[in-house]
Amino acid sequence: MTGQTIMIVEDDREIRSLLADFLDREGYVPICAEDGVAMDRALAAQRPDLVVLDIMLPGEDGLSICRRLRAKGDLPILMLTAKSDDIDRIVGLELGADDYLPKPFNPRELLARIRAVLRRTDRPAATAPPSRRVTFDRFIADLDARSLAFDGTAIDLTAAEFELLACFLERPKRVLSRDQLLDWTRGRSADPFDRTIDVSISRLRRKLSGADDKAATIIKTVRNGGYLFTSDVAPV
Fold first, then answer.
1. C-alpha dist (Å) from residue 198 to 58, 149, 220
2. CA pair distance 51, 216, nearest whole angstrom
């Protein structure tokens, strides 16, 4: 039994109820909201461990809600999208969603995605051993606390973005293929034709270069190969 709280933001009453019952049986504590207004009321009372957010909602849509949630903090977000809406999936990741799942879906796959996102966003306990901190250029990354800073200023990364950065930091100056990055960051849930790894790398590049314009070349695209992290990485 996990006891972790999952907020389901879904306007379809039947789907909402089925998901809540399923997650309850799996040991989670579901909180249901039919739209953005109801979600805001629920969030005012309790912060969940993860939000399952449908894109197609009455009133404020899921993409707008995702943007609002990400602007306020790092609450993990898993978006539900229509099966054929590749653009919505890419935009959702651009806005900071940690993962997505197209409809219709198997509840077991949703559970696997939820568990994967929660593992990526889990913070170490206060009694955890000293963190693994590394430096590259003028950045410092804490691989245990999952934090990144440039000259002492924190850089806000989503769980998916930090997971990707960690892959590079653990394997600097090696060409990593898209398939390898998908496998390490999303595991068996990854679709072999999934292009969202490219979106996440683009977002990560922008955040690095936003702190230091020279950092735009840290992650190099290798034609027909994948991606290469070009900086030296050293322990702090």
1. 31, 23, 12
2. 31
